[in-house]
Amino acid sequence: MKVGILPRRHLAGCLGAIMLGVSAGEPAAAADRLPDWSNSLARNRPWQALEAIGQAPEHRQIAAQISVFLGQEEAACLLRVPNVPRAMAGVEYRDALEVIVRRARDSRVVMLNESHFRRTHRVFLGQLIEALHTLGFDALAAETFAHDVSATLEDGVADAATGFYTADPAFAATLRRAHALGWAFVPYESKADSDREAREIGQAEALAEWLEANPDRRLLVYAGGSHISKNPEEGWMAARFAARMGIDPLTVAQGATACSDAADDWPVNTPSPVVAVRGGKPMASNHVDIIVLHPPAAVLAAEAARGTQVSLCVASRTDATLLRAFAAGDDDDAIAWDQTVVPAGATDVQLRLAPGRYRIAREDTRALDTVGHVAVPADPVDNCLQIESR
After folding, report:
1. Mean pLDDT computed over every residue of the chain
2. 3-class secondary structure, 124
3. 276-292 in b/e burial notation, b at 16+ Cβ within 10 A?
4. 3-state DSSP call for residue 329?
5. Is 347 helix (H, G, I), strand (E, B) or coil?
6. 311-324: buried (b, 16+ CB within 10 Å) or exposed (e) per residue?
7. Helix 119-133 to helix 96-104 angle, to the nearest 10 degrees?
8. Helix (H/G/I), strand (E/B), else coil: 191
9. Secondary structure letter of residue 225 according to DSSP
10. Which of 47, 233, 236, 327 could form a disulfide with 363 if both were Cys (CB 3.0 to 4.6 A apart)?
């Protein structure tokens, strides 16, 4: 297992991109004053990072994003007005993967975005990789990748140096699957520490150069928010890429995604992501080709797809901690297969894990300590599993 720390420039760039439209000039100015929380995250200590962030209002967005790594999206849903699709006459909802694959057959480049606040979007990325693989796509470019991502993912195991948002176990699982399918990993974040325009140009140029160097390959690009907009007046990456390459990428935006407090308001509730279609065509905007909706049942199904829910017996603590399940052979720098908060006083906690053997560690505000190992059986059990001591 390789050991690395996310480069300060790359971490600063990711922080500056957490909200749509934030210029790259802001993180460049902040690169030399990264706070304790970012150093903790760069050491793969998300619980300690959240503790260091505290309750300051100016840190609510980044705290919500890191909380997603722990499977907690409540803070993210509270940050914004629920985005619920309106019921409209003449609209039908079709399976999103089927719609995308049909349109992607003649595309060399597909671009998918995410909200950095929703784990469901990273699960959908994995599903799209599986679907596009059947069409001959075999490379994933992600905005969050560090520039040496090929080295950090050589064994398919994401670690603290792979990227910022890849610290989410759902994202790490997607990368493991892509590696198993033989996909290449392509960094394309701009190296320029300057304004938004320079960043968008740098991203587009990096993607263009890779495609020119690999003329027979097809590429899936994974970006944040508005970067996949093809509106030339706004100057985002996708528009600049299209002008540079003369290629019209198929752009897919992950749109409305259900939060638990607004589930009853949705006009559709299927267990799979959907695309709203009217008149035989996907309803989209002038900026993207397809908009994917994640109804309440689809959000629940995405969580269940990460693995079977397994109960583990844990020792009671007076303070909340983070329980983390690593592959038996992975060290503390690897991204956990799953992790969840253990409330104070709890003696039973649930993780989503495939059958196999895992090293269980517990992170508090001071340290990450290995508790022992657990063997997850193929068949479900009624009681919590005992963790074998070291």
Report:
1. 89
2. helix
3. bbeeeebebeebbbbbb
4. coil
5. coil
6. ebebeeeeeebbbb
7. 50
8. coil
9. G
10. 47
Query: In Å, how far are 65, 163, 204, 382 from 189, measured between CA atoms?
Result: 19, 11, 9, 46
Distance CA 123, CA 68 (A): 13
CA angle 378/384/385 to nearest 5° reads 60
Alpha-helix residue ranges (DSSP H) falling in the chain: 8-16, 25-30, 36-42, 46-53, 60-69, 74-78, 96-104, 119-133, 149-152, 169-180, 196-213, 237-245, 296-305
Taking CA atoms, 280 is separated from 94, 99, 283, 284, in Å, by 10, 11, 9, 12
pLDDT score of 248 more than 70: yes
Q: Extract the tokens encoding 200.
A: 């968008």
Chain centre distance of CA 122? 4
Q: Decide if 308 contacts 126 (C-beta within 8 A).
A: no
**For residue 80, what pLDDT is reported?**
72
Domains of the chain (ranges, CATH numbers): 8-78 (no CATH), 92-304 (3.40.50.11550), 307-389 (2.60.40)
| Per-residue model confidence (pLDDT) at position 16 | 38
Contacting residues for 34 by C-beta, under 8 A, at least 6 apart: 8, 11, 12
Phi-psi category of residue 246: left, alpha or beta, with phi > 0 → left and psi -120 to 50 → alpha? left
| The pLDDT of residue 21 | 28
Q: 10 Å Cβ neighbour count for 218?
A: 18
